[in-house]
Amino acid sequence: MLFRLIRPAIFALDSEIGHRLAIRALAALPQRAPASAGPLAVDVAGLAFPNPVGVAAGFDKDAEVPDALLGLGFGFAEVGSITPLPQAGNPKPRLFRLVEDDAVINRMGFNNGGAEAALARLRARSGRPGIVGVNIGANKDSADRIADYAVMASHMTPVASYLCVNISSPNTPGLRALQDEGALTGLLDAVIAARDAAGGTPPIFLKVAPDLEPADIDAIARIAIEKRLGALVVSNTTISRPALRSAHAGETGGLSGAPLRALATQRLRDFRKATGGAIPLVGVGGIATAEHAWERIRAGASLVQLYSAMVYEGPGLGARIARGLKALMRRDGFASIAEAVGSE
């Protein structure tokens, strides 16, 4: 209710300024305990999630407020994307609200303060409860992007509940080429070796784009199974443009929010079929209600993540969706989230 009252004032601000104010507000909240395990608890990649509703990467780029997000009732938070060196990202403006479409277009370009600053924050929260994944990326001007991912895996292994390899952002030129079969195999081998050398065991998730051809999906699924990844995150933003009403519809960058929902759901089904259910899936893209999350779970997702919908519905959305999932699970006669996964 409070967010509904202040939303007009927030929307009067530039999108990126509004986001920074949201981070500051969350940082100022009194510390609250994360969600406790209950009927929505689900185990994925050896991790015990109290509920399947998480915050997607991109919201807390620099690991400033993961515990505040967990205190709002999210089952997990994914910080990043974080790169080895700080980088400013693409020129502003680069973040646009498409209010008429309940959507967002961004071309941020992995802007973040770098690994050293994020690592200090994550070390400072060491020992606190809650699942915090770290989304890792490569610097735009890197001469060896695979080496960047390996460096990030080495740095973040001691502080991450899981590592998410992000090769699906459309805003770093050439990054999506790492989804090609040969490049992806080399990348994952390097990340796994770096994690193992750092003496840790966080599972490795891989975040993929929705703009994939069937052959790409089959190849990624096969590699993910061969490398024993913890999960596939399906999906990142899209470079496609369905019919949009907003004046910002022509902006370049990745589209997220409601217009991505159908495409992201179909890609989830595609990966469920390609993997035969052999690897957990995380559903992302256009999830704004408990019904949307439940559809994604029934389609094959063990976990779901939000970001763009929080722009329109506020930070309490995760807890509301979790409450709604309990009711939907009871309505449809399932005893657990795991039982409902892929049951459509």
Structural summary, described in words:
The chain is of the alpha/beta class and 344 residues long. 38% of the residues lie in helices and 16% in strands. The protein contains twelve helices and 13 strands. The two termini are 34 Å apart.
Question: What is the gist of this entry?
Answer:
The chain has 12 helices and 13 strands. With 344 residues, it is an alpha/beta fold.
Describe the protein's topology.
Layout (H helix, E strand, L loop, with lengths): L1 H10 L3 H13 L14 E3 L2 E3 L3 E3 L10 H6 L4 E7 L12 E4 L4 E4 L8 H10 L6 E6 L8 H12 L5 E5 L14 H17 L6 E5 L5 H13 L4 E4 L19 E4 L3 H15 L5 E4 L5 H10 L3 E4 L1 H6 L3 H15 L5 H4 L4
Parallel strand pairs: 3-4, 3-13, 4-7, 7-8, 8-9, 9-10, 10-12, 12-13
Antiparallel strand pairs: 1-2, 5-6, 6-11
What portion of residues is helical? Answer: 25-40%
Q: Gyration radius, to the nearest Å?
A: 18 Å
Outline type: globular
From N to C, what is the helix and strand string? HHEEEHEEEHEHEHEHEEHEHEHHH
Strand order of the largest sheet: 3-4-7-8-9-10-12-13
Structural class: alpha/beta
Overall residue-averaged pLDDT value: 96
Give descriptors for this structure.
13 strands, eight-stranded parallel β-barrel, alpha/beta, 344 residues, 12 helices
